[in-house]
Design brief:
18 strands, Rossmann fold, alpha/beta
């Protein structure tokens, strides 16, 4: 075993952690070790202990509670959080890059040289004098990454760093991580629910379930472990892995290694090229619906001296439907939700709502919704306004798997747990229209499926859901209608399948894997249906 003081090496031996007031351990008997320059993925369901473990690796962020065992970390550890705004402290990009170096007392000449190198490496030299307030969410997260690397840390820890990024920004961010892994030699530890494009990049996977290590090993073995064990978490595996596995099973083929990336999956799927499919999206009614919420020619700017965020944006939301809107970071999705809810008033244009419809808004900043010392007290906070009692709180907590966190402070919840808690607060008020900004941010794939089922049931009850999200796979699973926002306007609104099949970049992982080989595959359900149809045919028909 390596010496604990070796640079870039992290060692945990029988490490356990318990939050104050709780009997169950958040982490239990954790054992693992990294090698210098390696890339470790920490995976697991929401609430499995990933964030607690990562925060335990950074002295300044260690949660309050009781720890046991050994955890040894090098002195120079940098940390990139899920929300890019939570760790930016300065107002200009240059000042943010210089902040840490200045605090360490480096000479101005050294600081300028290090910033120049870092800016060129990350491709942000043109931003160097920009106000941070003008950066998009994706740009802020890249700045956080650059600000961490400018200090030359031995270890870089990333906690769900792509959770708030749009699909294009995710690809850019992951490509930078791949360069850091290959060229810089920094030890990387990252928690991530979205395994597409990530699993093929890492050296090892540490899989946590209920605070314990369930698997530790290479990514290929991890994928095989989930598939062979028929684990519920296998739905988190990349679309490439699941598509290739389905093809192999239908054709009776065996491979030594699961497919982790799209090129390998497409090679294994090529046998099915041009076989017709009748895949369709379940649960979508074709009957016309009445409009319950409408935006007409909205124009909005936050200040007169700032550019418009929305410029002639128009949209209609059908009653009893699920409508998803997608677009880049900073494209105006959140602003549109604020205008539809009445929190903001349009500069020009108008919002038309059905008179008796009650509107509930869930913003991206879930933490701002909590003020009590325990989750239970927070959920009971609006009971008088919502007309609900403890029984209703217990019922909604059961639906969202929150009861075991009742005694925990809301700020000690993981990102995914906090999202579910915020959703619980909104559902307890029983609105007719739910405006949801990134509702599944930070949730694992299993939890997303549960939330998707919950949203479908709400639709069946006559509720209307308008969802702004970067998660295109989730949108395809639930939405009746999808819209794309760009340049302050709604540039496309179509039924879900037409929308995603017609897009080249804003599309699902399953379209990326099957495009040009199997038509009309948008979701995993479509793919399963296709393989089921193939499996029913005679061998000579396949």
């Amino acid at each position: 075993m390596r010496k604990a003081e070796d640079a870039g090496v992290i060692l945990a031996e029988q490490f356990s952690f318990t939050y104050p007031g709780e009997h169950a351990k958040a982490l239990d008997d954790i054992c693992f070790e990294t090698s210098k320059g390696s890339f470790l993925l920490v995976a697991g369901p929401s609430g499995s202990g990933k964030t607690t473990l990562l925060r335990s690796l950074k002295q300044e962020l260690r949660p309050v509670g009781t720890s046991e065992g050994i955890i040894r970390v090098p002195d120079q550890v940098a940390y990139v959080m899920q929300d890019p705004t939570n760790q930016i402290v300065m107002d200009v990009v240059w000042h943010e890059l210089a902040f840490g170096l200045e605090n360490l007392g480096y000479a101005p000449e050294f600081i300028e040289r290090r910033i120049a190198e870092t800016a060129h490496f990350f491709g942000i030299a043109s931003w160097i004098h920009r106000p941070i307030s003008e950066l998009s969410g994706g740009e802020k997260q890249i700045l956080n990454l650059a600000s961490s690397l400018v200090l030359s840390p031995e270890v870089l820890i990333l906690d769900e760093p792509t959770a708030q990024l749009d699909p294009i920004a995710i690809q850019h961010f992951l490509s930078l991580l791949q360069r850091i892994h290959r060229e810089v030699g920094t030890t990387l530890i990252m928690s991530e629910h979205r395994m597409t494009d990530v699993l093929a990049m890492v050296d090892d996977v540490l899989f946590l379930e209920e605070g314990r290590v369930s698997f530790s090993g290479p990514p290929e073995m991890f994928a095989r472990h989930l598939l062979d064990q028929d684990s519920p978490y296998k739905v988190a595996l990349p679309a490439a892995t699941q598509a290739a596995r389905g093809a192999d099973q239908v054709l009776g083929r065996t491979h030594d290694q699961p497919a982790l990336d799209i090129p390998e999956a497409r090679r294994r799927l090529d046998h099915f090229k041009n076989i017709p499919t009748t895949a369709h999206h379940d649960d979508i009614s074709v009957e016309p619906r009445a409009t319950i919420l409408e935006a007409k020619h909205l124009v909005y700017r936050y200040r007169n001296d700032l550019p418009t965020v929305l410029d002639d944006a128009s949209l209609a939301v059908d009653k009893g439907s699920i409508h998803a809107i997608v677009g880049g970071n900073g494209s105006g999705k959140s602003t549109l939700l604020y205008l539809l809810s009445g929190v903001l008033t349009p500069t020009r244009g108008r919002v038309i709502r059905q008179d008796d419809a009650r509107i509930g808004l869930m913003t991206q900043n879930a933490k701002a919704l909590f003020s009590a010392d325990t989750l239970f007290d927070d959920l009971m906070e609006l009971s008088d306004l919502g007309g609900y009692g403890e029984d209703e709180v217990m019922a909604i907590a059961a639906k969202l798997s929150l009861a075991r966190f009742f005694l925990r402070h809301p700020y000690d919840l993981s990102g995914g747990e906090m999202q579910k808690a915020a959703l619980a607060k909104l559902l307890l008020l029983s609105p007719d229209i739910l405006l949801l900004d990134e509702p599944v941010k930070g949730l694992d794939a299993v939890s997303k499926r549960e939330i998707a089922g919950l949203f479908r049931r709400l639709r069946e009850q006559g509720k209307t859901l308008f969802i702004a999200t970067h998660d295109l796979n989730f949108s395809a699973q639930i939405a009746d209608t999808c819209s794309l926002i760009f340049d302050g306007r709604i540039v496309a609104t179509e039924d879900m399948k037409t929308f995603f099949c017609g897009n080249a970049f804003y599309t699902t992982d399953y379209v990326r894997v099957t495009q040009g080989i199997i038509p009309n595959i948008v979701t995993v359900n479509d793919l399963d249906e296709f393989f089921a149809g193939i499996g029913e045919r005679q061998p000579d028909e396949r």
